[in-house]
């Protein structure tokens, strides 16, 4: 289990690290000195995150992390109480106000570890969903989890996968009917996997593979669908 600690004060980082290893001695503890450093790394299973730091705040980092993953068990560890309601907005597991007792910290961390195990088990048990793409006599099986978004131009559909692209003759509507839940057709020519949405506005939806166009008048419906997806994922 990877447990991340993000705080810009070394003495606090070491104190939390020592407490974590007393409770979960086999954990891999990842130390981050800033929010920027945290965002450059793979998300841990559990994240102990300060809010008030130099540069980007912990709350700003949490919003970005939540767009990347709903699986991180997020615990704010802070000296101020005023951000507690914002913590709920980013799906925080708990909000610990410094100073706190060893007993209280152990209670929260043990519960967080169990939550992380449940999330990991659910990911493992998730059924893989495939679609079959046919171009002439060629048939290709694709895991829908690998599809970032798709677009069509002159009846040629291009599927942008995590690592490469596949093009074939077809329609976005037909593909939308195959991929199932978790996707949204933002435009007659675009279909996006909401798992890969990093940011959005009425000007477009950003993904790791490029920008997805949003048709005029459909942005509010997309936002509703995306919020529902985030709640249920």
Radius of gyration: 21 Å
- Helix/strand/pairing category: alpha/beta
Output the CATH homologous superfamily of the largest domain: Response regulator
Overall mean pLDDT: 89
Say what oligomer this is: single chain
The helical percent reads 25-40%
Shape verdict: elongated
Helix segment count?
7
Q: Mind telling me the CATH class of the largest domain? A: Alpha Beta
The number of strands is 15
The SSE string, one letter per element, is EHEHEHEHEHEEEEEHEEEEEH
Residue runs with pLDDT of under 50 for 5 or more positions: none
Taken together, the total number of domains comes to: 2
Distance between the termini: 21 Å
Features:
alpha/beta, 233 residues, five-stranded antiparallel sheet, five-stranded parallel sheet, Rossmann fold, 2 domains
The gist of it:
With 233 residues, the protein is α/β, with parallel strands linked by helices. Helix content is 35%, strand content 31%.
Structure notes:
The protein is of the alpha/beta class. The protein has helices at 10-23, 35-39, 58-68, 84-89, 102-125, 172-179, 219-232, and strands spanning 2-6, 28-32, 46-49, 73-78, 94-97, 130-135, 138-143, 147-153, 156-161, 165-169, 183-187, 190-193, 199-201, 204-207, 210-212. The chain folds into two domains: 2-122, Response regulator (Rossmann fold); 130-232, OB fold (Dihydrolipoamide Acetyltransferase, E2P), CATH 2.40.50. The two termini are 21 Å apart. The model has no long low-confidence stretch (mean pLDDT 89).
Question: What's the topology here?
Answer:
Blueprint: E1 2-6, H1 10-23, E2 28-32, H2 35-39, E3 46-49, H3 58-68, E4 73-78, H4 84-89, E5 94-97, H5 102-125, E6 130-135, E7 138-143, E8 147-153, E9 156-161, E10 165-169, H6 172-179, E11 183-187, E12 190-193, E13 199-201, E14 204-207, E15 210-212, H7 219-232
Parallel strand pairs: 1-2, 1-3, 3-4, 4-5
Antiparallel strand pairs: 6-7, 8-9, 8-12, 9-10, 11-12, 13-14, 14-15
